[in-house]
Amino acid sequence: MSLRTLLIAGLATSASAAKLLVGGYGPTSATNANGYLDTLDYTNGALKKTSENTEAGPQPSWIDLGLKGKAIVVDEAWNTPDTSSLHTFDLNSDGSLKHTAVVGIPRGGPVATQLYNSNKNLAIAHYGGHGITTFNVVNGTFELLQNIGYANTTHGPKPQQADGSHVHHSVLDPTGQYVIFPDLGLDVTHVFCIDASTGNLTEHAELKAPSGYGPRHAAFWKSGNKTYLFVIHEIASKIISYEVTYVRSGGLTFKQMDEQSTYGPTADPAVTQYGAAAEIAVSPDNKFLVASNRNVTLQQVPNVDPSNSTQIDSNSIATFKPSSNGKLSFVQLAPSGGLFPRHFELSKDGSQIAVANQNSGNVRIYTRDVASGKIGAQQAAIAVPGQPNNVRWL
């Protein structure tokens, strides 16, 4: 074999190698067992677990890689909400984790984090705790800054909203001046302005969702000099597109531009009414919008175990193409590879997507055509313990 051939082969091998970090709740049969953070090696079309860490409590629910060389993880702590905690890990060169710090959180049910103010502060969305907390980032650990709660006297009409506020996501706007928090229980998205000198958040007028829609997650999108916000609604399985205007005196205003089913324009409401939309993200090239659907099976996929010929049920991943006026064009509905795809993440170049299928206990990687936005063939799959709810490319 020539030197040139060897070099090309080596480059191809290295290009196909990557590492991922997947987190999940502990096994449902052992509610007191800790959850897990597994490092996966992805080489030549195969996934292999290389390390596991169980130091983030029983229900780690979110992984944040926003601090260089570190992983921030929150423990939702369902059974003992007073023990919710915020963990810091060092990321070793092999992708394994070293636990370096933990602090208690004075509000239960943390489910998402967002660094802001040039990474000097952290905001946490609390689903079970009905509110928001903020922290100062100090030498790789955290000090409580604010503890904001919402009274549960007003809420949406659906059963999932009966106990009031369920803040589900925290998202920094493109200017770095605002953090927004979709609240599934109150049918609103809370809007906060950042005080750069203190890190404190000040609340402004909220964005109201249609009654019973249940806003879960959101993503900002820039098109020229315009800013849009896409909000995915868990209960209604809808994405609403808003044009965002920055008010000189402070705050944001929103003009609805579009509303689309997360199953596409030909979806049968009789089938999709039981859906529970979950994650939403803009592609790395800023050209597509990707969303996950849970609880509705539209197709089957091969088993994770190649020796098992029995196919398994699969939920779906939807792709849309946003236009410069904020309207969404449906592109594709692809299989997620299992049930309850709570989270997914696109690779840095957008050519692959990793999906955590919570109720099937697996992680799958699919190819993705960057030009068309369409998700293609499965590249790799692996069974993981418990219920995977977060997957990140390292």
Automatic annotation (TrEMBL):
Alphabetized Gene3D superfamilies for the sequence: YVTN repeat-like/Quinoprotein amine dehydrogenase
Signal peptide annotation: 1-17
Pfam assignment, any one: Lactonase
Keyword flag Nucleotide-binding: no
Keywords recorded for this protein, A-Z: Signal
One of the record's GO molecular function terms: 6-phosphogluconolactonase activity
Keyword Isomerase assigned: no
Sequence similarity: Belongs to the cycloisomerase 2 family.
Protein name per its UniProtKB record: Isomerase YbhE
Organism: Didymosphaeria variabile
